[in-house]
## 1
Amino acid sequence: MMRRGIVGTLLLSLFLALSSSTSSADGSGPQPAYILRHFTSETIVNPDGTSTSTSHTEVEAANDTAAHRLGERSVSFSESMEDLEILEAVTRKRDGQELPVNPSAIFIQAPQGSSNAPMFSDRKNKIIVFPNVGAGDVVSYTVRTHAKVPYTPGHFSWTRTVSPLWYVEDWQETIIFPKSMPAAVESHQIAHSMEERGDQIAHIFTYRQTSPRARGPRAAFSLRLCTAIFHLDLREPCRIGPSLCAAFSGQGRGYATCRRAR
């Protein structure tokens, strides 16, 4: 099973909103309704496949309609497999004033329609309601999650898709593996670099897109980082890189062992 991770789920819900745009008054073309000013994420992976991720997001609403939608954020997680904590959440007004989110405005909800789908009953949404969000304001929040149960023991996988529709000023994601846990990486139009940090290897991914296209494939950019990876792009069939076959079979054996244990 391929693990997307809580940060992936967070970005998916966020970027569905970021895809919106409005037409400019001078007819120069669509203008983004949302601007991702800043996103950072660091994930530390343990040898058993568990991990801890901390992400920080800052999104600006370009107009009142966007501000209304941005005032409530939803983060999905698995109650049995993940621990989720909102470390900080504020509305930053245009004049620099910061309005902290009241703790009572952060709560857990079952996803809509989950009562009709028992197999997904473990999924929950943590809702953040930001105060007094207006045009030009920024919602800023920091999320930490601990993946306490790996989908496949001893293995870890991560997926990310970035659409050309999104307006992204600053995006960086770092995933840190033990040197004893070899990782295969496939990156498409997202900058990738590596750093040695003692007995760990850090994979750093950066992205910037300040001229989003009004139309285009939603999965134009993607990366996969895991002990066993595949590349999926909506413009072409799913493919497995030849150099990754050994790692992929290794994850298959781990998953089979996990299923037998259950």
Note: The helical segments are 6-18, 64-70, 245-261.
## 2
Amino acid sequence: MQSSLWGAATKKGSSAVRKTAILHDAPDIRTDVSAIYGHRYADPEIDAVCAAQPSAEDSPAAQMLRSDDGLESAAEADNTPSHRAASLVAPIAFDVDLGALLRKLDGMSKIDADEVYHSATNQHPYASHNHHFLGVNDNILLYAQNYTVTAPFSVRYVREGMVFMQYIKTGIYSRNTGGMITKSCDWSLQITNYPEVSIDFPSAQRQQIEAVGLLVRREFIVEVLGLDVHNIPKSKQSIFTSPDGARAVLQIPTPHDCMAILDDILDCRLTEPLRGSYLRAKAVELACMTVIHLNALGSRQNSPQKQSEQRLSRQLAAAAEISQRELHRPLRVADLAARVGLNRNQLTEGFAREYGLTPHQYLIKQRMERAQALIESRSMNLPEIATASGYTNYAAFSRAFSDYSGISPSRYRK
């Protein structure tokens, strides 16, 4: 008989009947603005680390995060109008034992999330695009999440003795950690180690979810990756020290140098066997970069002036990275500034100090350097190179290239 790693629930009357996910044959063990540390997270210790960004106030995700300080009891949440309305539609409910799944995958296997969630039912509350679990090694499970929510549903995750790090690129949902409700926010990182956590999508409104989850053994984070728990705010240290799990949730904006890793994982188009090796390497890289940033939290509790300087430096670095990463779809200067929590003048003045160029000049430089590299590689024809460099019109590309290089693209190729 094939082992069951999962479970699902079907609707019965007005309530969801849950079928527990178990592993029978396994042993019993257990807005880019936020990328620059911009939102307040209802915790004085986190606020000392994450300075506020006024421009983030208008985003729906930030408003949701700020509601009731981003935290509320389960009873209070159940009494809100949205929850009362959602209760009229019984959500599909799933149970997934992530610790059992890690053991079953044996650190070297992959399984589609559809198979995990739908093994006991034909109901599909979402449409998958890139949605799977991957065993990275004996200590890390990667969960790639790129799907569209099409109906209300909830998932209860069991992961005793494990730390779960959820990197949210886009998507709004609630997380119940031992009765404490937290709200997701675009480009945020949530870290917990509570043995049971429920994720709820109460609304039937379609929305795109893009996120990456890492399930990591607590001892591995501290003893192998080298997390210094003393750098974590005191109220959150139990996440990494408690073997029984803590109700605490550490929620901070996604470090800007982790953003590209998320894109690499979610947008991976490689085929096996290279795909698996690539994703495992990226998962380890993401875990390492996260520990680097967590260890740096202690050093960020400096004077207000020093914090302001550090924040601006991170904002400018994030803007430069976004500009480089999105050459194929370049942003207007005002839009780029908004994505990192600055206004146009702050971004322009900061780029002049850091790079000696305006944001527009920096973008042109990056596009032309990419074009030159592609021309030298002879891997594309010139119109294709123009498109890859962010130009929809070849004549405009040719003029820009000639202005920058003093020679036309065709002559540069010779």
Note: Residues 274-296 form the longest helix (23 residues).
## 3
Amino acid sequence: MLMETENHETVETVDCRAPDSDDSDWEKAWDFRAADAENRQTAEDSQPPEEDYIKVKKMPAWARIAIASVVAIVILFAFIWEFGNIGARIDPDAEIPQGSGSPVQDAIDDLDWIIPAYLPVNDYSRPGTKTDEISGIVVHYIGNPGTTASQNRNYFANLAITEEAYASSNFIIGLDGEVLQCVPVDEIAYASNDRNSDTLSIELCHPDDTGEFTDETYASAVRLAAWLCSEYELSGEDILRHFDVSGKECPRYFVQNGDAWETFKADVTSAMDG
């Protein structure tokens, strides 16, 4: 039989129909095959071209690295802002009150080894309340291993914003022996419970959970305690642990190692005599 192709060419084909089939059966089978071919073509046409598919699905390696780097930098800066030295979150235009002008404070202001880092006056860390006559020095430990003096000073300053606790210290000594003054010596700091009004507080940073201090921190603590005792005419026995005031395990190393505490007081006395 003769048949016209899609290119309008006439070709002769072999009639493969069964002897008892009629033309309508053949036409139905042909229509079914034609419809099936059309459906397959429609499905293929609905797929995006291979080039477009590659563009959508595949991103260049440099672009993936760039995006990952940006995300990592954002996370890092968020962490530093919250916990690092730049995280004070204090209004940079706010006035930071300086020392109070008491005789001992005036002497401190002339020392080059005590760094002024006064907190702004606020209800949570520097209320501005005057002390009674100073009768003792209370030694504390930060309790947050590995943090710096500056970070802990910023934490105290942030309490004016967060209002999450009442806490501060007159002095903080860092891991490298740096001495920061946060509250003037004639103002109370929130550190020593019912002895805030007649004592000065010294917070010591420490590198690990044992609470033991670096040599630099220890040396500066002896120097500062001796200087304050001399100014206020106190003795080594007027130096207290926070533990002696409230029973709290603070400073941990000096509570767990009584001999080390006695050595510290003896070192302070020697420094005063020297």
Note: Residues 52-56, 83-94 have pLDDT under 50 and may be disordered.
